[in-house]
Every structure is written in structure tokens, then in C-alpha cells.
Design brief:
globular, Immunoglobulin-like, 777 residues, TIM Barrel, Chitobiase, domain 2
Length: 777
């Protein structure tokens, strides 16, 4: 058995060649400003330049911050002084009637003037200034032989939404303070203003609470199972030490909050309740319905049955104490309490919870969750804060002043807006950046699904179903990065960039001003800035996707080459060589009637932009032949039907790409009729696991051959050597080469796992097996 491993992020990044950029004189600003009037000429920042400010101490602070942005790369002193006469002049005019985050920017040949009514407005203007300068301005060290020029222009700019956010889950994997600051820097560059910090979940409690020290002494640590896939991790065993994790001290929290405040970014902390709290219950099991014991899970948990007891008063005392310390650390007007995916099994059995239901006159456990959330909302409201939670907090009735974060589509947000509650749109189909952004064969392991850059850019947060009055309650949207499969900062950056870049324009700019082709052009310049900063990012949008279809009449495969990019220059090879600027130019779909490997890439001005994409098409003795299924495939994952396994098309790293066929809770047994007696000596087929999605490799594969379709001669069985708990999303090829045989029929039997193992989050449920192609040569 051979494994075809995913191309690593680093290898893909190494293959990227910088592309030609737009001229300095053409502003390439993201997000797109409301209004730009370009003029002739340019401004040059000189070593003698000063940054002057008007507006007192607040303006002084911002002047120092801008100088801090510009000094490292230029090496200029850029002294800051009060007054109106510097080469760069910053003005806070509180009488200015405009959006608090809006700004006016004028770049003349001799002077740059940035005006706003608040420090936040100046801060947003800084991001535009840095984008008007050459990309080398992002360097942390002095860059010589660069003319620090900006085109002359006038800009009026302000955001569309008041909530422009990005989320980071630090429970599943812990990220240190230095990376959190870098994450905030990424948000600042994109004019985002909310950092949603997911500090608590089953797999780790990450914030120091002085009144309850065991939360971090015990709840912040789990046993190290990082060698196993997320849903394949055995719980902590007796005698094992929990060594994997970490937490933020309150001093570190204060440091990060101050860092974000300097960039005018509000940090919204999330303290999960009533579920996703096993890390807390491991420390304080008496807060549960059962009394425990609990250990911090090292991986996936489903369903989420560990839950705070809603019938015990000490639960609410504990949570109010925790939130009191949280509010002392975070000045945010919003406090996020989670509220999602709470399985009510324990509440149904708990005498305390049932007594609470009776005492409060509640209908059922859904209303008990509503009671729970409403009680926490009253507490937060009494302290001048607003509760926000995932859209499940709508179930059983929404707390009077609560805001809703709608992640399960738009429906929860629509319902909340119609009930006059503020809404932040986070539909997973547009905003969950832990989902693949390109062919999984070229991407780090992620959740199944596809969220491309272009789709993020097409996101419209305000549903058409809302009236103009109701639409006012959509205060914004945010991206989310859940980190079950994101273990380090480089991968986290890669997963959000440049999808965050697209989202920033969705949330800042008007729908009328957005244009995919223009954005794509400006994005190339923004990527040069990412390179200067050393940030990792995906070029998936610049890769070539191959659409394939089988033509039964001609026993051939038609291949179309497509890219998200507008009017891409696509070049390809079929001789095994890497594509170059002189390779064949793609104009029309290709017809393939023999086994070949197509390599293709997008080019611009003679340079490859997004790396090579590759697909092998296997036209062989089995292609297009009759196939009999002794065990039927699942109607849920049928591929293209009966010919899926013999259409000559190899599946990608995405089991849902229509070239894989799924078998649920069963074996696979198929027979191919080659149509006539044929000399063969090689059989191969492929399977793909995705343990998180309950998909496993077969336990074994056996090939058999027959001359008459009645008596079959089995070849030696190929056993799967990779244990289910360490299987990941690699395509696994099973093959056998043998002395030439004269046969007509080939049988492929794959022994399935049938049910998910006991250690899996879906233990006892039906296991899946996915096959993509059977090749006979």
C-alpha cells in the first residue's frame, strides 16, 4: 500500500513566484474606500519629515503610533510635534460630523493631512496610508533604495458595519501572547475592530480566574494525543499526566487588551455555558449534574453531554464570580457566553434540573436553557454589559437585551433581527475559515467542505428577507477560526489569509462598490505586504481546478480548466513537466482517451502565480466497462452513479467532489466485466479516510479474477497497516502486480470497519468507506 500525502503548506509556499504589481501611482487599497479622487503627482516621505498633530493628548498618542509604523522600514526619525505644519499632519476634530471610524485623507505633493473626529478614525486612516506606500513599508528592518512615495489623492472613507470581527479558538490549541498580538495586527491592517477570543471549551480553560485556581491548574491541561487525528483520541487514563495546553495569566490578558486598544480593536471574551465546559467540570465536578469525575478531553467530543447543572444555585454563583473577574479584565460592552450545542441528556435525568423546571414553571429542557441564559443576561446587564451568544440561545425564548451570533445559516439572525435584537452574522457557509479553501490535496488538513476566497467575497450579511427597519439590527459579521486541526500560528495565518482580506471589504465597503475583478487585482499588492510581514497565506484562489466528465460514447474524459480569477491565463502540460510561460495556453476543454497526467497553473506577465495543480486521468481496461455492485453504495454519496469507479477520473482530496463513492456501515464488493478476455497484470484502487467525518480506510482489500464470472481466483489480501486512530486525510492506494493473466472479470472486495470504534466521538455509529477508481492494466 502506498500513501499519497498532502502537499505541505511550506512546500506550496515555496513554489509561489511573486507576480508583477500595479504601479505605485495606482492606489490598491483594501478595503475599498467610499470615495477616492486621484490627482496628478506624488508625495515623497523624506528623512527630515515630521508628524504633527492637532487634538491634544489623544492625537499625540496616534501620532506616536503612526511613527512606529513608518520608522522600521524607512529608518527615518519621524519626530512628532504638536501643530499643523508637519509633512504628515494628523487632526482630531470632534466637531466633524462623520462616522466615529471615518476619516478624510488628503495627499498633496508637499503634505499629507489625515482628519477624523476620533482617534479610531485616525487609526483606520493609518492603514490606508501604509497601503499607499510601497509594500516594503511593512518590513521590520530598514529597506534602502526605496522611494517612499504616495500618489496624490483625496479620500473620504467610513465603514458600513459597526461590528467587523474575527474569532480565534484558543481552547482546542493554545496560542501564546506573541501570536495573539500578531493576530491582532492582522486584524488592524484590515480595519477590523472586534477580536472574538474563544477562551473556554471542552478541551481547555485558558483564562486565569483567581477565585477558582483549579480552572487553570487542572482545566488548562490535557494528555498529549497530538499524534492522533482529532476524533481518534483516547481519553486520559488513570496515572497519566496532563501536559499539553496552557493559559493566559490576568496580567497577560491585560497586556493583550491594552495592545488591542492601541489599535482600536475591542476584544470580546467568550466564556462558554451551559455546555462545552468539560475543562471546567474537570476542575470543579460538583458543578455538573452527575458529580463526575471528569478529565479534560484531548480531542473531539460528540454529543456535548457534559454540562453545568442548571438546578444548583452554586452553578450560578460560580459563573457570576467568573464573569465578574472577566469583566474586570475586558472593557468590552459585549460578553459572549456561547450557548451552542448543549445536549440536554443530563438535564433530563437530573433531579435538581427537573426541580428547577417545576419551580420556574418551565415547559421543558429547552426553556431551562433559556432560563439559564436569561439569568446570566440579567447579571451582565446589571453590570452594564450586553450578553451575546450563538444562535442556539434563541431556543426556548431569547433574553430581553441579548444579541445573537448567527452561525447555523442566516435563519437565527433573521429571527433575532425581526424581534429587534442586534445580530452578528457568522454563517458557517461564508465565515468559517477552518473549512478547506481549495483542493484538499494542496491544503492543510481541515474540516470537510469548501469555502473559497470568491465565495467569502460574495457574502452579503443583510438578508433580503428583512425590511430596512429590521436590517438596522444586523450590526455586522465576523470570520471564525476553530482550531481542532490548526495547531500553530503559521497554519492559523494561512487559514484566515486572504479570506479575511475579502471579508474586510465585505464589512467595510458598500455592496455597490465591490467588484471581484478589481479586488483580485488589488489583492496581489496586498499579498506583497503579507510577504514583507512574513505572514503565511493561501494562494488557493490562484490555483487551477479541473472539471472532468466521462463520455461513455467515446470512452474518453473531457477536462475543463478553471480558476476563480477573472480572465486567467492558464497554461498546461501533459508530458510530466512543470508548466511554464511557454507551455500550451488553455482555450477549450481537453479530450483525453489515454492515461495522462495534466499539470496546470495560472500565469500573469510570464510568471506563475498560484502554484501547480495536477490530476491523473487513468484510461485503462476497466474504463467505461460494466460494473456490478454486490453491495450497493450509499445514495448519499453516489458519485456520478454506477460508472463512478470506472470513469477514468481519480478523486481529489475532497471526498465530496463527486468522484468518490461512499459505503455506509458495510463492506464494498464490485465486479467489473472487461467485455472480453484480456491480458492483465496490475489492479489498483484508492480509498480516502476522514476520521472526523466518520470515514475510515478498509480493514483489507482483496482482488479476484475470473474468466467466466462464476469462478473467481483471489489474489493475496492487502491488509491496512495504518490503525484507524492515526488515519488522516491521505489518499491511500491499494494495488497488486502479478504475472499476466487472461481474464474477463475483476472483483474488488474491501472489508469495511462497519462501526466507529469505541474511542471515536461517533462510537457505535456506522462507519463510512470511500473509494474513487478501479484501474486494470
Amino acid at each position: 500500500m502506498r500513501n499519497y500525502y498532502f502537499i505541505s503548506v511550506l512546500a506550496m509556499m515555496a513554489s509561489i513566484v511573486s507576480c508583477t504589481t500595479r504601479p505605485v501611482s495606482a492606489p490598491a487599497i483594501i478595503p475599498q474606500p467610499v470615495q477616492i479622487e486621484q490627482e496628478k503627482g506624488s508625495f515623497t516621505l523624506l528623512p527630515t519629515a515630521e508628524i504633527n498633530y492637532t487634538g491634544g493628548e489623544l492625537a499625540k498618542n496616534e501620532a506616536g503610533f503612526l511613527a512606529g509604523i513608518l520608522r522600521p522600514a524607512t529608518g527615518f526619525p519621524l519626530e512628532t510635534k504638536e501643530g499643523p505644519d508637519g509633512a504628515i499632519s494628523l487632526v482630531i476634530d470632534t466637531a466633524l460630523d462623520m462616522n466615529p471610524e471615518g476619516y478624510l485623507l488628503t495627499v498633496g505633493k508637499r503634505k499629507v493631512t489625515l482628519t477624523a473626529c476620533t482617534p479610531a478614525g485616525l487609526s483606520r486612516g493609518f492603514q490606508t496610508i501604509r497601503q499607499l506606500l510601497p509594500p516594503q513599508i511593512e518590513s521590520d528592518t530598514v529597506v534602502s533604495k526605496v522611494k517612499w512615495k504616495m500618489p496624490c489623492l483625496s479620500i473620504t472613507d467610513y465603514p458600513r458595519f459597526t461590528w467587523r470581527g474575527m474569532h480565534l479558538d484558543v481552547s482546542r490549541h493554545f496560542f501564546d501572547v506573541s501570536f495573539i498580538k500578531q493576530y491582532i495586527d492582522i486584524l488592524a491592517m484590515h480595519k477590523m475592530n472586534v477580536f472574538h477570543w474563544h477562551l473556554v471549551d471542552d478541551q481547555g480553560w485558558r483564562i486565569e480566574i483567581k477565585k477558582y485556581p483549579r480552572l487553570t491548574e487542572k482545566g488548562a491541561w490535557r494528555v498529549d494525543r497530538e499524534a492522533f487525528s482529532w476524533d481518534s483520541r483516547q481519553a486520559q487514563q488513570p496515572g497519566e499526566k496532563a501536559t499539553y495546553g496552557g493559559f493566559y495569566t490576568q496580567e497577560e490578558i491585560k497586556e493583550v487588551v491594552a495592545y488591542a486598544a492601541e489599535r482600536h480593536i475591542n476584544i470580546v471574551p467568550e466564556i462558554e455555558m451551559p455546555a462545552h465546559v468539560t475543562s471546567a467540570l474537570a476542575a470543579y465536578p460538583e458543578l455538573s449534574c452527575t458529580g463526575g469525575p471528569f478529565t479534560v478531553p484531548p480531542g473531539g467530543v460528540w454529543p456535548i453531554t457534559d454540562i453545568y447543572c442548571a438546578g444548583k444555585e452554586e452553578t450560578f454563583v460560580f459563573l457570576e464570580d467568573v464573569l465578574t473577574e472577566v469583566m474586570e479584565l475586558f472593557p468590552s460592552p459585549y460578553i459572549h457566553v456561547g450557548g451552542d450545542e448543549a445536549d440536554k441528556t443530563e438535564w433530563r435525568k437530573c433531579p435538581y434540573c427537573q426541580a428547577r423546571i417545576r419551580k420556574e414553571g418551565l415547559k421543558d429542557e429547552a426553556e431551562l436553557q433559556s432560563y439559564f441564559i436569561k439569568r446570566m443576561e440579567r447579571f451582565l446587564s446589571s453590570r452594564g454589559r450586553t450578553l451575546i451568544g450563538w444562535d442556539e440561545i434563541l431556543e426556548g425564548g431569547l433574553a430581553p437585551e441579548a444579541a445573537v451570533m448567527s452561525w447555523r445559516g442566516f435563519e437565527g439572525g433573521i429571527a433575532a433581527a425581526k424581534a429587534n435584537h442586534n445580530v452578528v452574522m457568522t454563517p458557517s457557509s461564508y465565515c468559517y475559515f477552518n473549512i478547506y479553501q481549495g483542493d484538499p490535496a494542496n491544503e492543510p488538513v481541515s474540516y470537510n467542505g469548501l469555502l473559497t476566497l470568491k465565495k467569502v467575497y460574495s457574502f452579503e450579511p443583510v438578508p433580503e428577507e428583512l425590511t430596512p427597519e429590521e436590517a438596522r439590527y444586523i450590526i455586522g459579521a465576523q470570520g471564525c477560526l476553530w482550531t481542532e486541526m490548526v495547531t500553530d500560528g503559521n497554519t492559523a495565518e494561512y487559514m484566515i489569509l486572504p479570506r479575511l482580506t475579502a471579508l474586510s471589504e465585505v464589512l467595510w465597503s458598500t455592496p455597490e462598490s465591490r467588484n471581484w475583478e478589481d479586488f483580485s487585482d488589488r489583492l496581489i499588492r496586498m499579498m506583497e505586504r503579507f510577504d514583507e510581514k512574513g505572514w503565511k497565506y493561501s494562494r488557493g484562489s490562484y490555483r487551477v481546478e479541473m472539471e472532468t466528465s466521462y463520455n461513455e460514447a467515446t470512452n474518453s474524459v473531457t477536462v475543463g480548466l478553471i480558476s476563480e480569477q477573472p480572465s486567467p491565463e492558464i497554461r498546461y502540460t501533459i508530458d510530466g513537466s512543470e508548466p511554464s510561460a511557454s507551455s500550451a495556453l488553455y482555450n477549450n476543454p481537453l479530450t483525453v482517451d489515454s492515461t495522462i497526467t495534466i499539470k496546470t497553473a495560472v500565469f500573469q506577465d510570464g510568471k506563475m502565480i498560484g502554484g501547480t495543480s495536477e490530476k491523473t486521468l487513468s484510461i485503462n481496461f476497466a474504463t467505461g466497462k460494466s460494473i456490478t455492485y454486490k453491495i450497493p453504495y450509499s445514495s448519499k454519496y453516489k458519485g456520478t452513479g454506477d460508472k463512478t469507479l470506472v470513469d477514468g477520473i481519480r478523486g481529489s482530496g475532497d471526498f465530496n467532489d463527486s468522484h468518490w463513492q461512499g459505503f455506509e456501515g458495510t463492506d464494498m464488493d464490485v465486479v467489473i466485466d472487461l467485455g472480453k478476455l484480456t491480458d492483465i497484470k496490475h489492479i489498483v484502487t484508492s480509498f480516502i479516510p476522514n476520521v472526523h467525518s466518520w470515514i475510515f480506510l478498509p480493514q483489507s482489500v482483496t482482488f479476484s479474477t475470473s474468466m467466466d464470472g462464476k469462478v473467481f481466483k483471489p489474489l493475496p489480501t492487502i491488509e491496512t497497516s495504518t490503525k484507524p486512530e492515526v488515519q488522516n486525510n491521505q489518499i491511500n492506494e491499494y494495488f497488486f502486480t502479478f504475472p499476466e493473466q487472461y481474464v474477463r472479470y475483476v472483483e474488488v472486495f474491501a472489508k469495511g470497519l462497519i462501526t466507529c470504534p469505541a474511542w471515536h466521538s461517533g462510537a457505535g455509529g456506522k462507519a463510512w468507506m470511500f473509494c474513487d477508481e478501479i484501474i486494470v492494466e
